[in-house]
Specification:
There is one protein chain. This protein has a domain of about 70 residues: NE0471 N-terminal domain-like (2-Layer Sandwich), CATH 3.30.2020.40. The chain has five helices and six strands; from the N terminus they run H-E-E-E-H-E-E-E-H-H-H. It starts with 7 loop residues before the first helix and ends in a 9-residue tail after the last helix. The mean pLDDT is about 85.
C-alpha cells in the first residue's frame, strides 16, 4: 500500500475547509441543546439550539423499542449536538435524521411503514367500503 504524505500547506488547507464545513453544518443543521426522557408519555424530548423542541415516541426509534424507563433516561447528547446516545442500549440517533422523520435504518423504516399500512380503524374501513361501492380501484390502461 502506498503511503502518501501531504505538505504543511495542504494540511492547513484541509483543516480550514473542515472547520468551515463544520461551522456551516452547525448553522444550518438542527442540533440538540438538551435531551431528556419523559416516562409519563414514553417520549424523548429534545430542545434544539434554534429554540424549537422536538418530541418523538421512544418505541418509534430503532434501538429504543422495548427499553426500560431507566435505560431511556440515560440519553446523552453526542458531540456538538448532532446526535443522541444510549450507552446501555448501544443506540445512536442522528438529530438531523430524526427531525426529517428518519427513526432508523432503511429496513427499520420499511417495517414501520408496513405496520402502519396494516393498521385498521373505523375510518379506514369506511373509506374502503365507500371505494368498493364505487367499483373499487380503476383498471389499469393496457
Amino acid at each position: 500500500m502506498e503511503h502518501r504524505t501531504i505538505s504543511e500547506q495542504e494540511l492547513d488547507a484541509q483543516i480550514k475547509r473542515g472547520t468551515a464545513a463544520g461551522r456551516k453544518a452547525a448553522e444550518s443543521e438542527p442540533r440538540a441543546k438538551s435531551a431528556r426522557y419523559d416516562a409519563v408519555s414514553r417520549q424523548i424530548v429534545v430542545e434544539l439550539t434554534n429554540g424549537c423542541t422536538f418530541i418523538f415516541p421512544a418505541d418509534l426509534a430503532q434501538g429504543l423499542k422495548g427499553a426500560t424507563d431507566e435505560q431511556l433516561a440515560e440519553v446523552a447528547i453526542l458531540g456538538r449536538g448532532y446526535g443522541l446516545h444510549w450507552e446501555t442500549l448501544d443506540a445512536d440517533l442522528s438529530i438531523p435524521a430524526l427531525v426529517m422523520g428518519i427513526f432508523g435504518s432503511h429496513a427499520w423504516m420499511r417495517e414501520l411503514a408496513r405496520r402502519g399500512g396494516a393498521s385498521t380503524s373505523e375510518a379506514k374501513t369506511a373509506a374502503a367500503r365507500a371505494n368498493g361501492a364505487k367499483g373499487g380501484r380503476p383498471k389499469k390502461a393496457a
